[in-house]
Description:
Elements: E1 4-7, H1 11-20, E2 29-33, H2 36-52, E3 59-63, H3 69-79, E4 83-86, H4 95-99, H5 102-109, H6 117-134, E5 139-142, H7 146-154, E6 162-163, H8 171-182, E7 189-194, H9 197-206, E8 215-220, E9 223-224, H10 231-238, H11 249-264, E10 269-274, E11 282-288, E12 291-294, H12 302-315, E13 318-321, E14 327-329, H13 331-341, E15 347-348, H14 353-373
Parallel strand pairs: 1-2, 1-4, 2-3, 4-5, 5-6
Antiparallel strand pairs: 7-8, 8-9, 10-11, 11-12, 13-14, 14-15
Helix pairs in contact: 1-11, 3-6, 6-14, 8-10
Amino acid sequence: MDSVFITGLGDIGEHILELLVRVPNVPKIYVGDIKKEESLRKIYSARSGAIHQGFYPKIEFIHLDVNDVERTAGIIQEINPEVIVSSMTLKTWWALEAELPPEVFRRLDKAGFGPWLPWHLTLVYKLMQAVKKSGVEAHVINASFPDAVNVILGKVGLAPAIGLGNCDLFVPELRRIVADKFNVSVKSVSVYLVGHHYLAHALNAYQSTMGCPYYLKIMIDDKDVTKQFNLEKLLVEANKYMPKGVNDHFIVAASGVKNLLAILYDTKELTYSPGPQGLPGGYPVRLSRKGAEVYLPEDITFEDAVRINEEAQKLDGIEEIKDDGTVVLTEKAVTIMEELMGYKYKELKLSECEEKARELLFAYKQLVEKYKRH
């Protein structure tokens, strides 16, 4: 069977590995990371735990530095994986809330996630260049802000196949709530959701959609039951007990493994996922060996679905993503970043993302040090 390549064995990557080794008859798993000793310990844990439960995974560690695009391309060509799952980033998304005083984090949060794109784009950009150089037609699942990163890379012909997480975190609970109300199996409930990362953030952080546009349709088998719910209240209820910060990473990883298995085993499963086909935000999709196919109900057009997510991304600090992949931030985002961090950029070009990432890391470090001294 075809192999799987996990690149980046941080917190989410480790959870993905732990879940994947407990899938019956899973193919060989390659794990690539720059930190050898730490990664080997995580592999040891995953493999030992799986064997305790009667699973016998084949795992091989590869020392991987995606900054070396040529060598990374050679590795991908050699192992020829069917699916690559990338959870690489220069700075984890939850660091801000963990390392800054609450009032400072709340002010920065108003800028949205867009200004932090250089951290999450740089390594995935290099990985996708390596995939293209390798000539291997692997399906890449990107965990790093796929609602925007996949769009940017798609503009230059480097789009990952799909993302994971974000609004997908609360879709299972939506289905569970509906199933309980109608006393049916969760399997009978289908959710058609068009929603951006900001919607998931708003519901988790503020218990409100915060005016974020979305589309939601709920079916029980062939029956449309959408009108039987106050959708705003339903979304809030589905997020009421959502773990916050790093504590949601297990669910994030489960979302990724779900997508991975659907592609690997050609299930054509109907699900929700962000960033399919280089599109902004997330959509209902069918996943198979062909990749991700957007699958919308008849009462919403493809153009309207894209428009919903383009409007929502403005709340996340992104005014526009141009045809060459250049990101234009909102004035609000630019102002907040300049006032709090002395860091200003209005536009982010792909060719500048690594340089901007270094500048952003330096400005952020200065901000953290400032509040440590107080």
